[in-house]
Specification:
By secondary structure, this protein is α/β, with parallel strands linked by helices. It folds into two domains: 118 residues, Lyase, Ornithine Decarboxylase, Chain A, domain 1 (Beta Barrel); 216 residues, Alanine racemase (TIM Barrel, Alpha-Beta Barrel), CATH 3.20.20. 31% of the residues lie in helices and 23% in strands. The chain has eleven helices and 17 strands. Helix 7 links the parallel strand 7 and strand 8. It is globular and about 65 Å long. The mean pLDDT is 96.
Length: 360
């Protein structure tokens, strides 16, 4: 069998045992608290991974786009939430087809303007669907900005004959760059804000928060019925270093790159640049960190080169193969056509990235 460090580079590798630990950790927390897990598949985009999440007990899947949902149907998933603002009429036949293949299709409403457009799409599709009302938990992206605007939006949804208001969702992505150093205090603040929206809307709507940073803490809080984490499946610098939510040795995805030059005594160039890492950086401004020699950091990228620097310890030699944990795992996966699967140091499988580029 081929060894991880013998792969042609650059390559992306999943440590299957570390991934399994991550999947079991999240599912165990959800099962203990009676909370449903609908993992966000924009992170992994892989049928085998979603299939494993479902086997362990996930109740459904969250996706960003219709194309992701379509690509991941071979996993056997029966319940899907599309957590994105759909407005185009050309989505109607695809939504109709999806609805026929699923037990539950859940869509997002994020504003009154978006709802007006979505209502026409649903009418053209000729379907009835569950709706999640999006609220802003501090990120400042989509969703109602105040409890009062959320209440008005809820009434609009309830007036739509083809829509059933199912719950309230958020993406508390501001947790990645939060001002509050205490993660539990931050999660409590998010939950308080969500409960304010829920109270204004009326009824007993469930909450569906969605972020890997806060998911373990949100599971078990009042009215939280589903969590929708994504990056937890693999981990990255955000989850294993900046926050950290996962132990370093549970960072399951790494970029394999070769040192191709040593321009000066404190700089090494590798054969993986922004076309492999993406342009995302960690809270500390890093593009990646070497998994085993953690003093080696990827601090800059051009398209085909990564800049590796160090301030202490020994530097690498030309020809050294490095195993690097990226800053943000989701974007790395979407840049690959295939990913290698390793058990220990041996490659055991190669997986096609089923939903790669499914941004429509």
């Amino acid at each position: 069998m081929m060894k991880v460090l013998d792969l042609p580079t650059p390559a992306v590798v999943i440590d299957i045992d570390a991934m399994e630990k991550n999947l079991r950790l999240m599912q165990s927390r959800c099962s203990e608290t009676g909370v449903g897990l609908w993992p966000h598949c924009k992170t992994h985009k892989l049928v085998p991974v979603l299939r494993r999440q479902l086997e362990l007990g996930a109740g459904g899947a969250t996706v960003a786009k219709i194309g992701e949902a379509e690509a991941l149907l071979p996993s056997g998933v029966r319940n899907i939430f599309i957590a994105h603002s759909i407005v185009r009429l050309d989505a109607a036949p695809r939504l109709r087809d999806l609805r026929e293949k699923l037990d539950r299709l859940v869509l997002a409403v994020t504003s009154e303007a978006q709802l007006a457009a979505l209502e026409k799409v649903i009418e053209a599709a000729g379907i009835e669907v569950e709706m999640m009302l999006g609220v802003d938990a501090g990120l400042g992206r989509e969703g109602a900005r105040t409890p009062e605007s959320a209440a008005r939006l809820a009434e609009r949804i309830r007036d739509c004959p083809r829509m059933k208001l199912t719950g309230i969702y958020s993406h508390e992505g501001n947790s990645y760059r939060r001002d509050e150093p205490d993660l539990e205090a931050f999660a409590n603040g998010v939950h308080t804000r969500l409960m304010e929206y829920r109270s204004a809307i009326g009824g007993d709507l469930p909450l569906w928060p969605g972020c890997s940073v806060t998911a373990l803490l949100m599971a078990g809080k009042e009215a939280v019925k589903v969590v929708r984490p994504g990056a937890y499946v693999f981990g990255d610098l955000s989850l294993c270093e900046s926050d950290p939510i996962l132990p370093w040795d549970q960072a399951a995805l790494s970029i394999i790159a070769t040192v191709i030059d040593l321009p000066d005594e404190h700089l090494a160039l590798i054969d993986a640049g922004s076309k492999v890492f993406s342009s995302d950086r960690s809270l500390a401004g890093l593009c990646g960190r070497e998994r085993d020699r953690r003093h080696l950091t990827v601090t800059k990228l051009s398209e085909e080169h990564g800049f590796v620097t160090w301030t202490e310890g020994a530097g690498p030699a030309v020809g050294d193969v490095l195993r690097i944990i990226p800053a943000h795992v989701c974007t790395v996966v979407n840049l690959r056509s295939e990913i290698y699967v390793a058990q220990g140091d041996e490659i055991v499988e190669t997986w096609k990235v089923d939903a790669r580029g499914c941004s429509v």
